[in-house]
Amino acid sequence: MLTEDEKKFMEYWEQNRKNRKQYLRKLSIGLPLGVLLVIAIFVNFFSGWDKRADLIMYAQPSLIYVLVGAALMIVAFIVIFSARFRWDSNEQRYQELAAKKNKE
């Protein structure tokens, strides 16, 4: 027997499983986590606790471009991965509930 929450989820997912292509929704899922991780990396890098890292950073100014590129790739990876993971989790839950409903 399905609970009320499970029935509501099945109705919601039946309506919204086709809307996988919503790009703004994908951004809203993983973007805060990705940006927070990148900010933590930059704070760590620019805090100056590692003197060798400071020397390398000031000796090679092109390193900033590499860091910005890496930061963008980190954010993009987290956004894409979290969106796909969330969609797959919801789809798996839906499939399990559908099998449970058909079994009854």
Give a quick summary of the entry.
This protein has about 100 residues and is mostly helical. The protein contains 4 helices and no strands.
Counting DSSP E segments of at least 2 residues, the number of strands comes to 0
Helix content: over 70%
Low-pLDDT segments: none
Query: How much β-strand is present in the residues?
Result: under 5%
Average pLDDT over all residues: 85
Overall spatial form: elongated
Rg, please? 21 Å
What class do helices, strands and sheet pairing give?
mainly alpha
How many domains comprise the coordinates? 1
Strand count, sense and barrel status of the largest sheet are: none
Distance between the termini: 7 Å
Order of helices and strands: HHHH
Q: Count the helices. How many?
A: 4
Describe it for me?
The protein has 104 residues and is mainly α. It is built from 4 helices and no strands. The protein has helices at residues 4-16, 23-46, 51-59, 63-103. Helix 1 (4-16) packs across helix 4 (63-103) and helix 2 packs across helix 4 (63-103). The termini are close together. The mean pLDDT is 85.
List strands and helices in order, with pairings.
Blueprint: H1 4-16, H2 23-46, H3 51-59, H4 63-103
Give short descriptive properties of this protein:
single chain, 104 residues, elongated
